[in-house]
Every structure is written in C-alpha cells, then in structure tokens.
Amino acid sequence: MAVLAFVDIPGNAATTDEADIPPRPLREILRQAKLRIAILTGMVSYGSMTFIMTATPLAMVASNHSVESAAFAIQWHIVAMFAPSFFTGQLIQRFGRERIVLAGMVLLACAGLVAASGQAIWQFNLVLALLGLGWNFGYIGSTTMVTDCHRPEERNKVQAINEFMVFGFVALASYSSGKILHEAGWTSVAVAFLPFVALAGGLALMLAVRGANWGGQGSQR
C-alpha cells in the first residue's frame, strides 16, 4: 500500500473565508450528482475487483490449473493494481477525473468479457491484469472526485459515508462471489458484475459530458 504515497492527487486549497463557512448537512451534500456518481463508481470499481479476484484462484484450480499458476496470476494482479499509481495522478490532471474513471470502467468490462471467453491460463492472467488496472483507474479516479464535492470542514462525514458504502459493497461482493461460482460456474461470475460496470460507466460518461453541476448542486467551494 506504500506505493499509493507516490500518487499525485490534485486538490483545492481552502481559503480563510471558506474555513468560516459552517458545514452543510449531509443530505444537502449528497444532492450533488458528482458525489453520488463518485461513490457509485468507487463501489463498482472495488466491488468488481473483489468479486472476480476472490473467485479466480478457485476457478483456476477447478479448471485443472496448478496452485502455482493461480498464485502467479494473483501476483501480477497485485502489480497491475498498484504499479500504475506512480502515474495515475498525472493522468487525472491531464485528462480529468471522469475520463480516468470511465477508462477504469472500460477495463473492468474488458476483464469480464475475457473471463467469459474461456478458462485458459492466459485468459485468467489477462483477466486479473485488466481487473487490477481497472480498479486503479476507477477507484483512484472516484476518490479524487469525492474530494471535489466537499469543503475541508465536511471532509470527515463525506469520507465516512463514502468508505461505508464502498466497503459495504466490497463485503457483499466477496461473500457472493464464491456462492455464485459454486452454484452457477465461472461464466456467471464473469458476467454478473457487468451491468453494474455499464451503469457506473454510463453515469461517468454523462458527468464528463454535462459537467460537474449536472443533476445537483456543486461543491460550492
């Protein structure tokens, strides 16, 4: 996790006048479409990654691949998750948060499609690599979007609701992954999360096209 320390996340400095403004109620903050979409894309990014990653080693062994092959795939998945963090911040600054999140959703969708296409070792390896890179772009991008939607004095409660929603969904994804794999098979696992990715990607695209104030109030920072 120490590699995340190298991520250059763009931010906005608070002024003295802003520090004197009382924090808004959480309900008012959540009216921002950008915040709702940021939370959703964070949930989908982390949940999809957990959903597929949890099932992949089990599916590989069930497909008569070795435990060593499964371990190798997971190792490269971890590399794909964190190695891009050295330049993800620069990509966000250049292309914008919404576009990086959208790129993450596309990569996650590609991971699902490759997973559904077969169960060869190269397919499992490619799935986990795409999954890791998609998580990096989607989750880091969504996290920076969240920071756009609150003032410094509102940070704690906004981050709290974001973390609660994201990791609650991650827990559900982790629990359901093995159950779906056991009852319906690997192909069902591969495609089960695609509707969530399509929804999150579509909303991120609409936000990128229509602007941060679409569907609700801005952060008023």
General description of the model:
This protein is mostly helical. It has one domain (26-210): Growth Hormone, Chain: A. 76% of the residues lie in helices and 0% in strands. It contains ten helices and no strands. α3 (33-62) runs antiparallel to α4, α4 (67-82) packs parallel to α7 and α5 crosses α6. It is elongated. It starts with 15 loop residues before the first helix and ends in an 11-residue tail after the last helix. The relative contact order is 0.22.
Give the SSE map.
Elements: H1 16-19, H2 26-29, H3 33-62, H4 67-82, H5 85-95, H6 97-117, H7 121-147, H8 155-184, H9 186-192, H10 194-210
Helix pairs in contact: 3-4, 3-6, 3-7, 3-8, 3-10, 4-7, 5-6, 5-7, 6-7, 6-9, 6-10, 8-9
Query: What is the count of distinct domains?
Result: 1
The largest pleated sheet is described as: none
In CATH's first tier, which class applies?
Mainly Alpha
Give the tally of β-strands. Answer: 0
Q: What is the number of helical segments per DSSP (H or I, 4+ residues)?
A: 10
Helical content, roughly?
over 70%
CATH superfamily: MFS general substrate transporter like domains
Give the overall shape, derived from the CA principal axes.
Answer: elongated
Q: Look at the helices and sheets and give the structural class.
A: mainly alpha
Quaternary assembly: single chain
Features:
single chain; 221 residues; mainly alpha; Growth Hormone, Chain: A; 0% strand
